Amino acid sequence: MTHRHPDMPFWSTASFGDSTDTSPVELSGLSEHLVSCKGVNGRLFTLQCLAEAADRFIAARLVTTLVVAAFLIGVTSLVM
After folding, report:
1. What percentage of the chain exceeds 70 in pLDDT?
2. 3-state class (DSSP) for residue 68
């Protein structure tokens, strides 16, 4: 028996001999999803995207930045 989390949608990619075309119910669901996605585009959404991009950029280089800063502090303290 397959167990799944109740909050997760059930996805099946098998057609089991049925038509592989999209059903009207699937098209309706897709249409509703696209309408809700269109409503999200605004200034706040753009700001959120920029904040997420900055977070990804900083997170990917955090260790490198800390190592370079420590190196520069160490070199500066030796020179002075």
Report:
1. 72
2. helix
